[in-house]
Each structure stands twice: as structure tokens, then as C-alpha cells.
Please model this.
Amino acid sequence: MGKDFSPKDSSMYRIVVLGDSFVAGPNHIVEHYSFPHRIEEKLQEKGYNVEVLNCGVDGAERSVQVLNSILYKVTDFDPDMILFPCSHFSLDSSTVVREVYRGIVLFYPYGNQESKQEGIANIDNFFKYRGFFHFLYKSYIARLAGRYYLRLNRPNFFSWYLGLYRENCWHSWGSEVVTYSLKESVRLFSEVNDELTSKNIKFHLFDYEKVNRNMKIAAQTELSLISLNIDFTEEDHIYKDTHFSAHGCNKIADSFCSYLLEHQMIPEKYFRD
Model:
């Protein structure tokens, strides 16, 4: 869950941001950016004594585990506010482990060493032909041919390695994800919210773009939803995958800062005169 955090300074308003690699930052590639740090910098530049802890962890399919970590781990950091991403209200639970091997994200089921070693062997083999796939990906004609070939839906190492180069990750066999129902997900969110409220900790869900369904569900419950309503462009994402680029992280931080200040969500006593 990132670096060790120092004890809270009573003069600082502490915000914790949870989530997946879109929060943590894509540490499997060179361009490693995250927006929580930029939120902190921007709020401090505006005169607020605010620190923002990045508690994002890699793995979009583990939202239940991340949510559960709030009560048994995150509250130990003494946060004043917790922000939790909500691209959709239904939570996911997975035993999938994500590790970075030779700069590639390796997915395999927890405890399945045979699956892990198979993934490592395939990544090692991929590096023998990486130059070829680099040429293939950069060549417009070759990419057209590759797309046509992939449409034939013939699963083999050629298509798998091409996908590995494009996505920078390898999915080994046996991965399972369980998606919770909307009713059960809302119940879990509400339980965490009630417990945090009793501890005087603010809990807000957020989505990067305006999602009417999310807003409707939030309006029908007592859950708070921050809808940033960001209009993303191609330059907001890293070219190798959909993670946020430095430009995208800056855009998210600007939207968050504007929302927090416009809605007076940071107590005035933390503003430096």
C-alpha cells in the first residue's frame, strides 16, 4: 500500500485515496505518475495544510479487499477523509496476485506456483522476440495485418505475445473474479460509511467521469459521491495502456481541488493566513 506513513501532524488535514493502479500509478512502466500527490501539492500551493496519502494498490478486480482494508488498516493512519473510486457500484473480489517481473505485470492465482512459473517462462520467452513485436507494433501495415489476423480468433503464442507487448501484462491461467450484486455492494459501502462516521472520518466515493447511474444510486442511499465529470483526451493516458499520464493526473488533481474547495470540504482552520 505504498510507503510507510509518518504519524499524523495535528496541524495537517489528512486525506487518504484508495483504489487500484489508476490511483497508485502504473509502476510496471517507466512513466509512473499518480494524482494523489498532485492533489496535495495543489492544495498546499493554495494555502491549505493538507497531506494526501496514496493507498492505491494494483488490481482492479480486488475492490472488496481494498474496501475491507479501510477498517483494519487505513484507519490506523488517522485520516480525516477517505476517498474511494467507484467506476461502478458493484464490487469485485479476486484471489489474483499481481507481480512485476522484468517490467511486465504477471497475473496468477494466489498460491498457484505452477501458474506463476508458467507465466515467468512465457515472459522470458517473449523477451527473445521483443524486437520483432516492437517492429510489428510500430509498423502501420504490419499492425493492420495483425489486427486482421487477431480477428480470426486463433489463440496462439503470436497473438498472446502481441497482446503482451500492447498491454504490458501477462495473464496466467486459473484467475477467478467474483462480482458482488448491487444490493450487496451498497450494503458493504454503507457499513464502512457508518463505521467511519462513528469515528468522525468523512467517506466519499468518487468517479472520474459523470456516470448517471452512479449518481442515481448515491442519491437513493446515504453514500456521498464526488462526480468529477472530467472530459479525458488521448494525451491523458499512457500510450501503452489506459493508465493516466502526467497530463491526466494533473487534470484529475485540478478537478479534485476545485470540487473540495467549492464544496468547502476542507475545514477553514487548515487554511494558512
